Amino acid sequence: MTTQQDSSSTTTDAALPIAVLGGGSFGTAIANIIAGNGHDTRQWMRDESRARDCRETGENHYYLPGVPLDPALKITSELEEAIDGCRIVFVSIPSKSFREVVQRVAPLLAEGTVLISTTKGVEHDSFHLMSDILREETSGMRIGVLSGPNFAKEIVAGHYTATVIASEDAALCDTIQKVLHSETFRVYSSNDVFGVELAGALKNIYAIVTGMAAALDRGQNTISLLITRALAEMMRFAEAMGADPMTFIGLAGVGDLILTCSSDLSRNYRVGYLVGRGRPLEEAVAEIGQVAEGVNTVRLIKHKADEMGVYMPLVSAIHAILFEERPIPEVIRNLMSGAQTFDVAYSAKP
Ligand SMILES: NC(=O)c1ccc[n+]([C@@H]2O[C@H](COP(=O)([O-])OP(=O)(O)OC[C@H]3O[C@@H](n4cnc5c(N)ncnc54)[C@H](O)[C@@H]3O)[C@@H](O)[C@H]2O)c1
Ligand SMILES: O=P(O)(O)OC[C@H](O)CO
């Protein structure tokens, strides 16, 4: 491997300078894979005391305790140092702060830099997905999104994992596949950026729903019912928004939906569980202590679905519980007494 990057190439096996913005679980997991693949990897986190602690102990104690960081991973709180010479930048910042961080980094980026969002959310008080923000806040960049069934803790534990890189730029997809591919991590590609990104944001809502069902001691029939009807809602919404519903049967759709709705490794699932056990939403979110994107996404999708007349009974139900102070038993009764309808109503056939 050389340390020299061809600035125009995106399909190289050479060691590349690559930045990962974000000091949380996923930023750390991705940075560790990239460093392990021999790239000159810089992870940026805003807090110098945390960055120093990670450098000194070789571990990100708060987000991934007990996981050794790759010794070659460079951790810094200086944005300029992280970005210097990088033509590939992953942005792993919660949706709430995503725009603010992109605005800070934009002046430091060379034209043609590959910008990859790994964030599964929708911007607060707007309906922007993260790739929209990347496009709005920069110009002349090459943009993609990474999404899939990917618990950070399982990635760093070396469990076999797959994800999706989505971009209209096929060379970008090829490069990111090479940069991230490892013995335990596979990367599939897609050209449906909107569908992949929307799927990643939507599935968080339903993880809150199934977490709540688990808290209420519902069985596997209930979980299966919820996951399957969640997929129907997601595809219906996707179609109304102009995304390709077929994307939702891939890893970023049903793959991530099954994962997140089935495990208490999911922060969204745990929020639902705590609320199902009677804890106020604010308390549940505070106890998790990490981002649970679904809470904000519920509000935004409910508003959008109402505006567009898309039928999303599970979104309406979880919104009623989280934001309208409606009692859980009453909401469940309403859901179960709704009009009986078709199982598979969507058909790709004309
Ligand atoms: N954790 C996972 O398993 C996982 C997997 C796939 C995708 N994601 C997605 O990745 C995104 C990030 O998730 P995460 O798990 O890393 O979150 P996290 O809560 O573990 O960490 C978020 C990080 O962002 C930093 N941050 C927040 N606001 C900031 C700001 N204004 N400036 C700089 N840094 C700021 C925090 O300090 C923290 O280091 C989310 O959208 C999530 O949906 C997470
Ligand atoms: O912990 P969650 O609920 O944010 O889910 C993490 C990932 O998105 C799973 O793919």
Automatic annotation (TrEMBL):
InterPro entries: 6-PGluconate_DH-like_C_sf (IPR008927), 6PGD_dom2 (IPR013328), G3P_DH_NAD-dep (IPR006168), G3P_DH_NAD-dep_C (IPR006109), G3P_DH_NAD-dep_N (IPR011128), NAD(P)-bd_dom_sf (IPR036291). Keywords: Cytoplasm, Lipid biosynthesis, Lipid metabolism, NAD, NADP, Nucleotide-binding, Oxidoreductase, Phospholipid biosynthesis, Phospholipid metabolism. It comes from Microbulbifer halophilus. The gene is gpsA. Its EC number is 1.1.1.94. The keyword Calcium does not apply. It is an enzyme of class 1 (oxidoreductase). It catalyses: sn-glycerol 3-phosphate + NAD(+) = dihydroxyacetone phosphate + NADH + H(+); sn-glycerol 3-phosphate + NADP(+) = dihydroxyacetone phosphate + NADPH + H(+). Sn-glycerol 3-phosphate binds at K120, G148, K203, D256, S266, R267, N268. Belongs to the NAD-dependent glycerol-3-phosphate dehydrogenase family. Residues 18-172 form the Glycerol-3-phosphate dehydrogenase NAD-dependent N-terminal domain. NCBIfam families: PRK00094.1-2, PRK00094.1-4, PRK00094.2-4. Residues 192-332 form the Glycerol-3-phosphate dehydrogenase NAD-dependent C-terminal domain. This is Glycerol-3-phosphate dehydrogenase [NAD(P)+].
